């Protein structure tokens, strides 16, 4: 049940953060970080700036807007950092 709620939250956060075109521009992304993830990011010890996050996720996206797949890549980065800070355990099957 918790995993289902987490997935719903990921999808809903993207939908509410995206513009009318269904994509997230840089300004919307920075707002998402500040409003939804400020304390969470601090708690992980992963203190990259908004600009660094944007560049990391958007490297292969020349249109300058984040689609849902880009957003999932960003979520993957965060989850990987959390995994590293929680005991440093490598999850079986994780890359």
Automatic annotation (TrEMBL):
Domain S100/CaBP-9k-type calcium binding subdomain: 3-42
Alphabetized Pfam families for the sequence: S_100 (PF01023)
Protein name per its UniProtKB record: S100/CaBP-9k-type calcium binding subdomain domain-containing protein
